[in-house]
């Protein structure tokens, strides 16, 4: 006599979806974790602070070292050397005064034009 056993397995629904190996997800929005957002915010903050520190308290056209200055409108025929002679003390080297005027005004040479406005150190002598 032969016996036959019939068995039907009970199938429970899967709790997680099966993932395909090697499947590429469609490009979508970038998802950052909380830690990722904190890292990005911290990096942006560090870059901003570095930018502010690198530029410093620079003020274009303002004298450094607390030098007292006056504004002068250049007239026809005036030169840096002539202007330096009017503000230099008798003991000062005129070359140093010319360099100071160039530094105060961001000049790179002795060429002046009538109508230019210059900052001159106050007369010291």
Automatic annotation (TrEMBL):
Residues 71-121 form the LysM domain. It comes from the Bacteria. Gene3D superfamilies: LysM domain. The keyword Oxidoreductase does not apply. Keywords: Membrane, Transmembrane, Transmembrane helix. InterPro entries: LysM, LysM_dom_sf. Pfam families: LysM (PF01476). SMART domains: LysM. The chain crosses the membrane at residues 38-58. This is LysM domain-containing protein. It comes from Luteimicrobium xylanilyticum.
